[in-house]
Each structure stands twice: as C-alpha cells, then as structure tokens.
Amino acid sequence: MCPPEYFAVGYAINPWMAPGTPVDVELAVKQWTVLRDTLLGLGHTVHVLPPGPELPDMVYAANGAFSVHGVVYGARFRYPQRSAEADRHRAFYLEQGWRYVAPTVINEGEGDFAYLPGRLGGLVLAGHGFRTDPAAHAEAQSVLGRPVLSLHLSDPRFYHLDVALAALDDHTVAYFPGAFTAPTRQILRNAFPDAVIADEDDALAFGLNLISDGRHAVLNSEATGLAAKLRAAGYEPVPVELGELKKGGGSVRCCIAELRSA
C-alpha cells in the first residue's frame, strides 16, 4: 500500500476524474489509514511504499504489478502521468527478493488481473478494453506459467477489471455483468455459475473494488446491497469509507497490491 499524502485530481485518465476536484488530503489519509488498520486487524501483513509528490495516483498501489507464487509480472502504464510508478514497484520487489519480469506491452497490474488458485491449478482472469493491451494476457501467461482467461470490458466507467469483478476465494468471483461485452458475459456465466452478481448501483459505488481473504470481504461502505449478498453467500463483509479516493477512480482494491509469495 502507499499512503495518499500527495493525492490530487489534477488530470483525467478515467471517467471518474474531474480535474480541479477539491480533495481533502487529510481525510484521504485518514480513510486510507483505517483501511490499512482494518487489514492489520484481520491478521494480514502490510508493506508501505513511500509516496512521491510527483505521483498523486500512487495510492492506487494495485496497478504497479501482478504477482503469482513469487513471480512478479511488472506494470507498464498506458498514461505517462503514472509511468514512473512502475519503477517504484519494481524496486520494492527486487529489494524483497522476488523474481521480477519487466513487461514489453501495456498492462496495469492487478487493475486488470485477478487470480484464482483453486481453478485449473491457478487461473488468471485478465481484463482488456480500456487500459491493458490484450497482448499482455499472453505475456502474463508465459511469465507466470498459469492459464489466462481474457475478459473484454465494454463500459468505460469500469475501465479496469478490478472495478467490475473481484475474486472472493480460491474458486469464486463476484462481478457486474453490464461491465462486459455479451460474449464475455457468456464466458463468465459458464465459468462461474455460482458467482455473486452485483447490481449497477453497487458496482458504481465501487463495491466490487474489494479485497477478500476467503472469509472477510473488505469493501466500500456505500455498497450495502452487495454486502448483503456477500453475507448471504457465506462471506463476512467489512465495510470501510473511502469517499475521497473514489474521486480518483478507485477504492479498496485499487489501494492494495496483493503479495502472492506461495
């Protein structure tokens, strides 16, 4: 995770961003701190990257890379405003002794990749349509040695996979069908007949931008309907307020790069 000490909305690279939007940095840091402390309280370890004044979006740490079993497939950002973030993440993984593989094509890390270790020996779900180049799916499959299922996003409000779909445990996902093309909706229906289906209101509230450890699902507090569905499906929803960071087009999941060392 990376604290939003320099968070601002000074440019627009997704439909949620409106340049000049007032941002309460103190509130953003407080909300981020609650999220970090929530993860710690659930027994997870959190590593913190130092923020940089020239990188206001670095709080969205999920976009910096994608790791599977000790191998890291690095990010290559589509927009120059965020390109320097990739080097910050690369330095972290190398310092920690991970095997880091630099990408040759555009991809935005966990923004467009999700992992289900219980499917096909480890299945990568990969989004494209707005940020990540489809060629990155094949590259990720080669680098990570895991099968990749490509999913085509069609609604620009859901510009990354992680605002349209979430891994809930080793086998199960939640998603909003309206974020995807018709062929991809059919793929998801066939592959995940037991999925938790979010409605549009909760998807637009960034409810699917959640992180789950298989039992606890930490999600935006605005997504009350999805929280009820998750509870009914056997998960324990843990709501957090991240209204300030939503101004930049992100929420819980965007703020967290999951470290899969094994």
Give the helices and strands, then pairings.
Blueprint: H1 25-41, E1 65-68, E2 71-74, H2 85-95, E3 99-101, E4 113-116, E5 123-128, H3 135-144, E6 148-152, E7 165-167, E8 173-175, H4 182-191, E9 196-197, H5 200-204, E10 211-212, E11 216-220, H6 224-232, E12 236-240, H7 243-246
Parallel strand pairs: 2-3, 5-6, 8-9, 11-12
Antiparallel strand pairs: 1-2, 4-5, 7-8, 10-11
Instruction: Tell the overall outline.
Output: globular
Annotation, overall tally of beta strands: 12
Stretches where pLDDT is under 50 for at least 5 consecutive residues are: none
**Average predicted confidence as pLDDT:** 97
The main sheet comes to: 3 strands, mixed
- Strands of the widest sheet, in order across it, are 1-2-3
The third-level CATH topology is L-arginine/glycine Amidinotransferase, Chain A
Helix content: 25-40%
The fraction of residues in strands falls at 15-25%
What gyration radius follows from the Cα positions, in whole Å?
A: 17 Å
Structural class: alpha/beta
Superfamily (CATH H level) name = L-arginine/glycine Amidinotransferase, Chain A
Q: How many individual domains?
A: 1
Q: Supply the CATH architecture.
A: 5-stranded Propeller
Number of separate helices = 7
Order of helices and strands: HEEHEEEHEEEHEHEEHEH
Tell me the span between the first and last alpha carbons.
20 Å
CATH class: Alpha Beta
Protein name: Amidinotransferase
